[in-house]
Structure to design on (138 residues):
């Protein structure tokens, strides 16, 4: 079961991210959306994005504070010997900001791209990790 928590602040953050994505595009560009999954695994977040046909050199991943930014382009495949009758394969630039609920340890982010699946392992910053507090009795 999936659960989505929507608060006014999360909706505002989503709208601001969408506006920034629109600002990144020229009028001739098309914004291509792609699916992602975000899982919490212990002290890390694991982000999986489906980016078929995208090469690592055509992908820009940035981590700043509590935000991951994915940017790149789906290249259009053209064949001069045929006529395209229907086009559902994405082509064009993409830009996506992912806001996570805690600060991240950006120096330890790992990224792997295999078979069109981008997997990011993003550790939480030390100050965001739970601490065990020893209780002293008198």
């Amino acid at each position: 079961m999936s659960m989505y928590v929507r608060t006014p602040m999360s909706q505002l953050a989503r709208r601001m991210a969408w506006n920034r994505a629109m600002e990144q595009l020229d009028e001739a560009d098309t914004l291509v959306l792609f699916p992602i999954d975000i899982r919490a695994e212990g002290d890390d977040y694991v982000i999986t994005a489906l980016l078929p046909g995208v090469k690592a050199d055509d992908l820009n991943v940035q981590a700043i504070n509590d935000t991951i930014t994915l940017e790149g382009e789906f290249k259009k495949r053209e064949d001069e010997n045929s006529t395209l009758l229907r086009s559902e394969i994405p082509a064009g630039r993409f830009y996506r900001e992912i806001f996570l609920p805690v600060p991240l340890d950006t120096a330890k982010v790992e990224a792997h791209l295999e078979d069109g699946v981008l997997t990011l392992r993003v550790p939480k910053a030390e100050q965001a990790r739970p601490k065990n507090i020893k209780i002293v009795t008198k």
